[in-house]
Design a protein that fits this description.
By secondary structure, the chain is low in regular secondary structure. Helix content is 0%, strand content 0%. It is elongated.
């Protein structure tokens, strides 16, 4: 796979017209940590 790509240099005033992607993306909120308690039963002594 040798796909050659051409790079074009564009002169301008530095004002890039880029769409604001953040308007379309919801900011992910941190997930609450779920703490699980692990209960280990005691060993029953056999008689």
């Amino acid at each position: 796979m040798n796909d050659e790509k051409n790079i074009e240099i564009v002169n301008g005033n530095g004002d890039l017209n880029i769409s604001p992607v953040t308007d379309y993306i919801e900011i992910e909120k941190p997930r609450p940590k779920i703490t699980e308690e692990i209960v280990i039963p005691e060993e029953k002594k056999k008689i």
